[in-house]
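@here heads up, posting the sequence + SMILES for the zinc ion run so it's all in one place. Ping me if the SMILES looks off, I pulled it from an old spreadsheet.
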Amino acid sequence: MSTTLTRDHRINTAIDGVKLHTTLPLYFWLYPKPSYTLAADVHIEGGGNARVKSDVPFSEATEADVAAMLAKVRLIPCKVCGTKTFDPATVETNRDGKCEKCFLAELDASLKAHQAKQAERDAKKDRQMRKKGFTHKVVAWVHPAAGDDYQIVAYFGLEPTEAEIKGLIKGKRGAQLGQYAVTKLPSESEK
Ligand SMILES: [Zn+2]
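bot reply: prediction finished. Complex structure tokens:
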């Protein structure tokens, strides 16, 4: 038996008045493998995506199997705001019972907190270096011969010359200096 499902199979359903749009993942057709079992991607109108899975081999799956799989999806009120969202017990999701909006808001908040902590650490280091007599800081991007770009930080006792800044990548074979910024460290009296 072979599947009757097609890649443009679309299912529109609703739970408690919340509209759900379901599609089948394209990998079934792009990278076909005999070991695949049926799965679908469910999208909540207004935000939120999750994958549902079944044990039915994809090669034998029918529309009825898709419908049976979708019938197991449940919605719960978002932990934070109460908006209907996926019950994590019924779908594959990392949203942990939070709606898309609240999940992203928390992600953004934790990113901002992380950045603030990093800025605090940088400022502390700058103050320490200023006390040691350094007056300028260079933050530069390095494009290495292989691998990802990375940042280097260097402190100078005088405003660095271009040659000195270029010298920061001396010894890093094949590396190129990318964008850099020179800042003057504030002295104690300037703060
Ligand atoms: Zn929410």
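MO: Residues 131 and 187 are 8 Å apart (CA to CA).
MO: One more: The longest strand covers residues 49-57.
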